[in-house]
Amino acid sequence: MNTRTSSLSSLSDLFRPNNPRRLRSRDLSSTRLHILKKEIQTDTHLITLKELYSLLGTDPVNGLTSDKARELLEYYGPNMLTPSAHLKWPLLLFKSMCTGFSVLIWLGAVLCLGAYVIEITAKPNPSHDNLYLGCVLIGVDVICGLFSFFQNYKSSKIIKTFNNLIPMYANCVRDGVLTRNVQVRDLVKGDIVEVEIGDVLPADIRIIESKGFKVDNSSLTGESVALPRSNTEGTENILESPNIAFFSALCVEGWARGVVVCCGDLTALGRVAGLAARLQPAPSPLSREIRRFMRCMSAWALSLGIIVAAASLSLGYPFIQTTIFVIGIIVANIPEGLQPTVTASLTLTAKRMVSKQCLVKNLETIEALGACTIICSDKTGTLTENKMCVRNIWVWNKKYSVLDKDFKSTTQNDAACIAFKICASVCSNAVISTKSDVRGDASEKAILSFLNEYDDPMSIRKRFPKVAEIPFNSINKYQMSIHFDTQSSKYYLAMKGAPERILSRCDTVIFHNQDIKMTNDMKDVANKAIENLANTGQRVLAFADLILDAKEYPKNYKFDTEDINFPQTNLRFLGLVGLKDPPRKEVLFAIRRVRAAGVRVLMITGDHPATARAVAAEVGIATTSACRVVTGDDLRNMTHDLLSLTLEKHYEIVFARTSPTQKLQIVEACQEKGNVVAVTGDGVNDAPALRRADIGISMGITGSQVSKQTADIILMDDNFATIVTGIEEGRKIFDNLKKSVCYILISNVPEILPVFMFILFSIPLPLGVMTILCIDLGTDMWPAVSLSHELAEQDVMARPPRTSDPLVSTCMLNLVYGHLGLIEFAAGIFAYFVVMAEHGFYPKELFGIREAWDNEAVSDVTDSLGQEWTFNERKELERICQAAYFVAVVITQVTNCIICKTRYNSFFQVGMKNGVLNMGLIFELFIAALVCYVPGVNTFFRTYPLRLRWWFLALPFSAFMFVFDEFRKYCIRRHKFNGWFNKLTYY
Asked: pTM to 2 decimals?
């Protein structure tokens, strides 16, 4: 006893506000996280109250003294939730701008600015192109970084949402005086508090005395069932102990007095809040892919830079000029448009999903949902309707299903059913408001709603006014009430509760409209009926009544519910009621689709194992008898390795009676096997698992504010079937992102190779820095983003989840750098040479001419026709050639965009149905014309008004590109050449 209690005291020391162990803030937060992941280990609910008072140094009547309470408050700190060590917003902003692909863009910006600094120190009239490019790259990074910052900053406010669950004031006894306005933050362990109906529990308390006390733990457990709490023996698991009421629970009935056993961070709510705030979400598959791609691109750019440096130095270029070349080749390898394209594509998909009742808070989780391999689903409200309903009525050896069409006609003349309706109407505290809204306990609400549909329970209550009541409690497990029958002037006793408690008190039963003696065989039949109803996941309640003798209990008889002076045995058994939270109609089909897509579905619930198993069978999670049911007690006795082995060995698993830390353990065990895990939840208890999962999914209607704050996705209709839509959208967006990335990378080739030719063959620069910028962040942007509007391929939900299919694969790079990119480069360099030749510079004259061409002092460079060109004339011709090269790239990029619409199917199968893409292609050509022909704009981008015929120079290459790609896809579909194209280019 002392070990575990003293261990709790040492934990309290660790959570003291003044950091007694002098740990760094991050280390302290990490240590606290490690502790909070463990199950609560205490025996404050198992020891006697006398021992507890002695341990806490308190008195059950007078409470703590004010001096003692002040001393404890100063030592342990206030009764509130302590936020974890989060980054300050400037550091969070800096981190948001320097993660993922943005690091590569920052590198490009720094290199551009470095190249500009070198130029202004080495040249009398330096170009400002690198300055402009550097500033634009910084702008791209800042915009994308700010977007990411706002997403992260929102999620850092989780503790504030938890604090909204905490009341401001409490009723506390100190120095023998009950004070009703003590601030909750000033409560300490050992305080005596009183709670009445409508109050929110100000701390974790052990019940001293109570009457009809019930609490709604839905904020913690997600199960909206009123639970009785009283001074009784505790159970081993404190979370299910009937003598403990938890911080933030709502008192829905009765009153109670209790002693505070836990405050602040170590309460059940505090532990959940601490876990949710301190856990770091797993990086999304997309962010991991982008980091991988960034490393590959960095290595590729650096390798090319080294090659260019070695070649330049060997060709005799000065060191400063070589440095500028290396910077240029590295910057040319950076696809500047990729990050804004990915962000824009995900944003558009998120907006589209809102119309499908799916609100996306974290953009990257859209794609992560498509890669999901396991869904850990809550039961109540997600798979079920979160609404208790009467499903069956069993009266002597007859079972009536409420769903039968002839239910009303078959029961209206049955004496047992008539008696049951009377008993159920009066033995209930649920009420019907003026707006036909039923209020009360979930089970009582369901029964009263059922009665209201087939009868008039309010009229029955008027006929049988209540005179006495014994409310339901966890010890008796029944509710009994006495009513005066105004018609017969006799007292009527009604009783309902656990079937085993009711049956043991019954002596007669209604059989064929007559009261007969109940035999043991009859009780066996009733017990069999109870078992059958329970096995289908129904909650079973039994009903009994007794008409009291008018001579023995005359009018105005005083019934005493404390010292009972009326019979509680020899009752008449009426029947059983089966209550159920029905599964959503669309869930069965949704789970079939999810499983057909290779996604495994696990149920994790706080409900009873039998109920959980029955619901799992109904919705298609448990399809065979081999489905394993694991309870919270089983999990406590499992090692980490045994849990992993269980998850690996059993495909169908239902977890029941789980705690928040256990749900978190299950999620982490799944992730350790390399799974991408989605978690659904609606309660505060789900917050840690939602936070840790790859995709946290909260319910929009029944979900708590905490779960919504913690989750990445909110289902506005609380419907599991909406997740299927999300998976389909996630898979579609990944496919379309691959197309967008391929489209963007292809233009990298005609941007890189001109720089190589400029350096290695010493020709005038075919494509300038500003035109590269115009392609990456201008003409390519709309078409790249518009590819996200492409429809999903037919087999998108028939494929298994992607596990080894990267965003940028070797096959894509083969296609980009070895096939389509080279065709685009050929189109651009052809246009460049044609324009040069038309002005007198044949290709053979251009090789080796760069030094004289770029020398401002040389004014007599001779072309192939013997004409001399001044520096300004040469630069004007260079602008014309660069404009022709730029236009050729744009024309081939139009074809490239059409090609990238599909990865497998022929273009003729999908057509040009994507209106956004069609507009994007027109926009691309419009921007190209704008850049070439608008004065001022063409000066800024170093272009020139082109003759009309030069626009058609790239058309043969575009046609060849289209025909080649159709042939390639045909070979892929038919596995021609032994699948050579499949292995080489099918990305």
From this structure: 0.77
